[in-house]
Structure formats: structure tokens, C-alpha cells
């Protein structure tokens, strides 16, 4: 019987499989950052063991770094300590670090792909749930906790139970003004924030195939928001073209051999999935969330569900969520006044996102009372934006182009949305307090966020393009 | 942190809210410690305290009639961020068991790796636990790992729960995953030699 793409990769990475035990799975690439790694290095010290394969771990500082004046010492003492610990730990254990000031520094899920570290067929882990991003290359990539970071540092392996497989097909063609972010927000709104828990998802279908690599990363990035262990897309010419020539990608004869292998990475026609879901791209309009988990989303022209549309058991959590957002059941969001716009995060901070936004805002001005933060995903994205003159377009529109980091996606640095304010954000989570204590988040695509920046209100971007 | 879990009888703290994400369990701004200790004081920080740090009287952890080593929560507990700090905060506060009708995957692994037992019960049994606590905030639950059951002491109602045999052995004996993985060293090296590329 045929195998799924996921099974092909998983099975070829099993070091040990014993009855009653989770599989010991070999990890090709391990990314680490300042927030979820210090306790893991401490664990190694307590056991007096080294990092087993230091060349297979790469580090960057992204979660709590400032996005202004990165050349100066970090003002906030605890953030500074975490970044210093990362520098010290990586030096002591022989791990390569792309820290502040390094031309490769950036959000861990942006730099892996752009440096050609992320490759098809790999197993990739990181102490961050959005590690699923790397699945866009046909890799098995997933987020782990710090105890597991320590396992990988110590043994280059992780103990895991094999998840079930789900295929999500999106057929047909996307409508104008609809981006890959809208596809994934739409899927999550249909299957809920826990709809894929226990599964590893493969995205397929014409609408997925037609996406660029960066747009595919946006989809895989948010797999965790429906509970999936990870998400992946079979590699194809789009993938190979993206990788070829990148810094750490295979070269010459190695490239030819790699390509030969990568072309075998797809789900066989007779492979079976534990669950298959099918959607039609034509049904998807620009999306926006209204609640406090990513499953609470809708088409931008729709209304928030009213209480009588809900299962009785869901009502208390739903009410708590809308109270936090200060929104009414049954209300529409179009025209709702917003205060902040955040374009960034591992979901939407790549060069294509910045190009789309710059192209849209060219010659326009942001609404007077809206603060707009654009935070590129990496130093390389920032440099590319400047080379293309996007920085001038964005600043002329009144947008602030800041320096790379996770920034207002989780508000670990000073980029916080003030209490009670509404932020339309291209990030991945609208949880209570995620962008700052009592901040209120609407998740949307970069185009929908840019449109709101111009009008100062939740806007259907299709009316402006 | 105790590395062994076998049997527990305790009252429980109810948080009957669905989709509790790890940002609620421990907000990102409190992730800056570089050790595993001390996170308990910020457990459920923004539900527990006003922005001026005064306790919110209506939150269950601030209500002295509720106490115990068991946290009981609505479905899809621990979704969102992979931060193990959520498990550390729960352990540091003093909980040994979390009961829900559904757990997010990464949280479940993180809990087990910190010798906290996540128990998945049916929706019906979860409702029974919540009503038992509503009737008597001191209502005790009995958890037995060897027998894999959870019991409401007052009514005698009980339900069996699943746990994989490997993790059960780890919890009963205080073993961790790294001990096991380190014992596989020669298999790991053999695997590496069998793969021409790093993918």
C-alpha cells in the first residue's frame, strides 16, 4: 500500500521503535532562540553532557528583541539577560548563533527557509509552536517544549508518538484580494482551534499548488492554530526554484542527488489518510477574527454569530471572549474603528508580504489616528525591502518600518498594543493579552491590514483594489 | 519538583472555561526567567490580577474556599504556544494533576515531561466533577495512576483514563526521556551512518 508524504519522512527518521514506547525520531535541524532554550542548556550542564551534534542546531535572537535601535544594548534587563544567556550558551556548547547585529538575524521561521537551511525531507524542531512553518518545504516540522529541546541537544533525537494523518484539499482558484492567510484563517474558522489536534496535516489541491513558497509558509505556519502537530506541502518545482542557490542549500553534484530524492517526496496515489477535508477556494473571502482564539473567524462581510446560533455549552466561553473584545453577538466588523496595525510575525513578514503592502499603499496615507508598525521578518528581508525602495513607500504613507523580531505578535519586547485598543494584525494569535495586557486583536491578511491602516477602520480590501 | 507520581487524593480547583491557551496560563511577558522555578506566582496572571496587581476577587485562585493539587478545566486545555513555562507554572503553583475533556498535544507532552499528570475524561464525567465541586468546594477526587482511574470520592463515581505505558512507567518511577534517549547512543550513531544526507 502507498505511503503518505508524512509517513515517508517520519518512517525514514526512526532510530528506535519499541512496542509501548514512543518512537525515537532523528532530527536533522534544530532551531533555538533565547526564550525556550536557557533551561535546556542548564539541563545539559547538570548532567555534564555536551551538545551531541552542535552543527545541526542553529540559534537566533528574535522573541524579545527590541525593534528599534538594535545596535544599542537592550534596555529591558530581563530581555537583555536572556539574549546574553543565548550568546554565552551557544559559545560554550559550540552552536552557531545569528544574534543581534548579524546579517542573518531574524525570526527563526523566516531565516531557516531564506538561508536554505530548511530543506525537503528533513525533520525539523524548535521550541516554538510555529515551527510548522517549515513544513511548506515538504519537511516534518513541529514545535516542542524545553524538555524536548534538551533531548535534541543531548541526542539529536526526540521521543514522539506518531500522529494521525489528515489531508486538507483546497481546490479551485482564489478570488481577487484573497491571500493564503485568508485560506488558513478560513480553514481554522471551519474546523475550530482544536479541529486538527492529534493530526499532522498535508495541504493539497490546486489553490495550494498555485501559491508561492512564502504564501505556502503562511498556511503551514498556522497549522498549530487548529491544534495540528504540524502541516506540510509536498515539494515541487516552486519549492526547488526557491531553494536553489541559497546559502546553505546543497550545491553541484549534491544538489542533483538531493533533487532526485526530493522528487520522491509526495503522498502516493493509494496512500490513505485518517481524515480528508475538502474546501473550495471560490468560497473564501478576505477573513477576519472577532474573538480570542484563531478559530473565531469569519469572512469580512459576515456578522459575528448570535447566541442562538451556538451550542448551549459554548455560550459561556463565547461571551467571555466577546466581553474581552467589547463586541456584541450578531454584530458586523466592517467599519469598526481600529487603533493599531501590525504587519509582521513568522506568519506574514516576508518580502512578498512587504511588497504587497507597499504596492497597495503607494501614494496613499495612513489614517491620522492609527499607529502602523511594519516589522520585517529578518535582516535579509529588511535589506531587500530597502534595496527595492519599499521602505520609502511605506514611510511616505506614515508607516513605521522597524527592525526584525517577533515584536507585537506576542509583546515580549516593548512593542505592545495598549489596553483596550484594537489592533488589526497579520500575526497568528488573538488570545487575550497576546499583544499586550487587555489589547484586542483582529487577525487578518497583510492586504486587509494595509487597507485598515489607510481607512482607520475594518475594511473590505476588495473595494480598494 | 517531585519526579514521581503514583496516587493522589485531593480537593480540586475548577476553571470551567474552554480553549484555555498557554498565553493565559502564563503570559509572554513573564517568560523571561532562565530557570524553571518561580512561574507559579504568575500562573493565570491576567485572570488573577488587575493591572495594578490587586487580586481579582472573582477568579477562582483568589477564592480561599477552593484549593487542592488538581486543576479541572474546560476542553482544549493548553492550546497555542509550545511554552513549557505553562507546565512549570502549573507545577510551581502546586498542581500535580490537570483534568480536562481534551488537551492540546504540545501541552500534554510538556506536562508529562514535568511529572504533571494530564487526565482526559469524557465530557460527561467532566460535568460531574464540576457539579461535585459546585456542591462542595472541598469535594475530593482520587487519582490512581497504576489503576488508571479518577474517582469522585463523595459519590463513588469513577472513570478510567488512558496513558501510554512508557509515560506511565516514567511517572511511576521518576524516569525521564533523556535517560532513555542517552541509552540509544549506538543506535543513533548507526542511524547517522546509514544516511548520506542530512534529510
From TrEMBL, chain A:
Its EC number is 4.2.1.33. PROSITE patterns: ACONITASE_1, ACONITASE_2. The keyword NADP does not apply. [4Fe-4S] cluster binds at residues 346, 406, 409. It catalyses: (2R,3S)-3-isopropylmalate = (2S)-2-isopropylmalate. Keywords: 4Fe-4S, Amino-acid biosynthesis, Branched-chain amino acid biosynthesis, Iron, Iron-sulfur, Leucine biosynthesis, Lyase, Metal-binding. NCBIfam families: leuC, PRK05478.1, PRK12466.1. Catalyzes the isomerization between 2-isopropylmalate and 3-isopropylmalate, via the formation of 2-isopropylmaleate. This is 3-isopropylmalate dehydratase large subunit. It comes from Chitinophaga jiangningensis. The lineage of its organism: Bacteria, Pseudomonadati, Bacteroidota, Chitinophagia, Chitinophagales.
From TrEMBL, chain B:
It is an enzyme of class 4 (lyase). It holds the Pfam family Aconitase_C. Its EC number is 4.2.1.33. One of its GO terms (molecular function) is 3-isopropylmalate dehydratase activity. Pathway: Amino-acid biosynthesis; L-leucine biosynthesis; L-leucine from 3-methyl-2-oxobutanoate: step 2/4. The keyword Lyase applies. GO terms for cellular component: 3-isopropylmalate dehydratase complex. GO terms for biological process: L-leucine biosynthetic process. InterPro entries: 3-IsopropMal_deHydase_ssu, Aconitase/3IPM_dehydase_swvl, AconitaseA/IPMdHydase_ssu_swvl, IPMI_Swivel, LeuD. The keyword Amino-acid biosynthesis applies. CDD domains: IPMI_Swivel. Residues 4-123 form the Aconitase A/isopropylmalate dehydratase small subunit swivel domain. Keywords: Amino-acid biosynthesis, Branched-chain amino acid biosynthesis, Leucine biosynthesis, Lyase. It comes from the Bacteria. Catalyzes the isomerization between 2-isopropylmalate and 3-isopropylmalate, via the formation of 2-isopropylmaleate. Heterodimer of LeuC and LeuD. Belongs to the LeuD family. LeuD type 1 subfamily. This is 3-isopropylmalate dehydratase small subunit. It comes from Chitinophaga jiangningensis. The gene is leuD.
